[in-house]
Design goal:
Blueprint: H1 11-18, H2 27-46, H3 56-66, H4 72-87, H5 99-111, H6 115-128, H7 135-151, H8 155-172, H9 175-191, H10 195-211, H11 215-232, H12 235-248, H13 252-269, H14 272-285, H15 289-305, H16 309-320, H17 326-342, H18 346-362, H19 366-381, H20 399-415
Helix pairs in contact: 1-2, 2-3, 2-4, 3-4, 4-5, 5-6, 5-7, 6-7, 7-8, 7-9, 8-9, 9-10, 9-11, 10-11, 11-12, 11-13, 12-13, 13-14, 14-15, 14-20, 15-16, 15-17, 17-18, 17-19, 18-19
Length: about 425
């Protein structure tokens, strides 16, 4: 059973629905997800009879699922969950019978950046899974729960979820998952700013993965090694780590992350053409919605630097009506304000920067508050002059960075992205 507690089961779904009108296009999917999870609870806690195919409860849940018309993948997953529990004749229902389907539902939600809802799905699996009998189920659900909590900024609970995954993996003798949990521990250290600890964990994990010839785990460790180097400001080394990771990873999601890390390193090195190549690939092909949003937000920033207003406006409009996560929303308004400043739109710039400060202050994103306030001061002091943001921009990239940039350019051509 889980070490986590809650006062209301599936509170994130109730909160999401409480913030919507019934005519909201997201309402049917959230409502269907909630009733499916509550049916799973009843099936596990009260017995198989509550999910009999002809029961009123199952029929009501199926009606809610049918109403999900704009998200066919989610509808299909929810239908499969109900099919599994209503067809199961066993007198004692078990989470393992529906865990893969619930994991798929959680993944569908976190692909869309719905981390509170996804986390609730994973937490449900964690609460019912018996680590002694379903170690893989318990490990995987804890790892995904940790990811969602980390994305939401709840580092303490994320650390507990990762720690639980690592303990279960160690008891079950699963080295790959032990190392994955260690890498997750390094992510927490990085998020808390403890770079020496993050490096120590990753270097040790990388060495062990190489000794055991665990190529994919090496890729994961290299990815986070890149993130640590990037945080230190060593962008060339960060690019090299990310490129190495891209060469060994097979997971499309993790490859997207490696490419995103490469793009960020290019941008900080001033190799903007290579950064644009990488972000364009991600904006068009990334598996996760969040990765596509990040790519478009960075393309918005690049077009502002390059003074290309038509493309800047294209990305601004694409993101304007999206319900972005708070950190990305604050950064989006900062980039819009910076861009409008460069294009001479003083009032629009001021409005965007004030909104960036408002969002960032509410969530303690102090670095964004600082940048937006600095931009506002420059705007007030010299509203008619463009304000250049300081950036690392060497005149010529090193040979190793140039070779990586050429490889990314070739990737873009092969992907047919323009």
């Amino acid at each position: 059973m889980s070490t986590f507690t809650r006062t209301l089961r599936h509170a994130p779904f109730f909160e999401a629905l409480g913030g919507m009108e019934e005519g909201d296009p997201e309402w049917p999917a959230a409502s269907a997800g909630l009733v499916v999870l509550r049916l799973v609870d009843a099936w596990l806690l009260e017995g198989a009879h509550v999910a009999a195919p002809d029961s009123w409860g199952v029929q009501t849940v199926r009606e809610a699922i049918v109403a999900v018309r704009t998200q066919p993948t989610v509808r299909s997953i929810l239908e499969s969950i109900v099919d599994a529990i209503s067809a199961e004749p066993a007198p004692t229902p078990h989470i393992a019978l529906v865990a893969p389907r619930l994991m798929a539902y959680g993944r569908a939600l976190d692909f869309e950046g719905r981390w509170r809802l996804a986390g609730d799905v994973y937490r449900t699996i964690v609460e019912y899974a018996d680590p002694a009998h379903e170690p893989d189920v318990a490990i995987d659900a804890n790892m995904r729960l940790g990811y969602c909590l980390r994305m939401l900024g709840d580092l303490d609970d994320a650390a507990r979820a990762y720690s639980a995954a690592g303990r279960i993996a160690a008891v079950s003798g699963d080295l790959v998952k032990v190392l994955r949990a260690q890498i997750a521990d390094a992510k927490i250290a990085l998020a808390r700013g403890n770079l020496p600890r993050a490096e120590q964990i990753l270097d040790r994990t990388l060495e062990r993965a190489r000794e055991s010839k665990l190529t994919e785990v090496q890729g994961f460790a290299l990815l986070d090694r890149s993130a640590v180097a990037h945080t230190r400001g060593d962008y060339e080394r960060a690019a090299e780590f990310a490129h190495q990771a891209l060469g060994v990873l097979s997971s499309p999601i993790e490859r997207d992350r490696a490419l995103g890390d490469l793009a960020a390193s290019f941008m900080n090195l001033g190799v903007r053409s290579a950064a644009r190549d990488a972000f364009l690939i991600l904006a068009a092909t990334a598996q996760e919605q969040y990765a596509r949003w990040v790519a478009m937000n960075n393309l918005l920033y690049l077009e502002a630097i390059e003074r290309c207003e038509p493309r800047f406006e294209q990305y601004r409009r694409e993101l304007a009506d999206v319900a972005l996560p708070a950190s990305l929303e604050a950064e989006y308004f900062l980039h819009v304000g910076e861009g409008y400043r460069r294009f001479g739109h003083v009032e629009a710039s001021r409005t965007a920067l004030e909104r960036a400060i408002e969002v960032a202050t509410a969530h303690s994103f102090n670095h964004i508050v600082f940048r937006a306030e600095e931009e506002l001061r420059a705007l007030k002091a010299a509203p008619s002059e463009a304000f250049d943001i300081p950036r690392v921009a060497p005149a010529t990239p090193s040979a190793s960075v140039r070779a990586i940039a050429d490889a990314v350019s070739e990737m873009r051509q092969l992907a047919g992205v323009s």
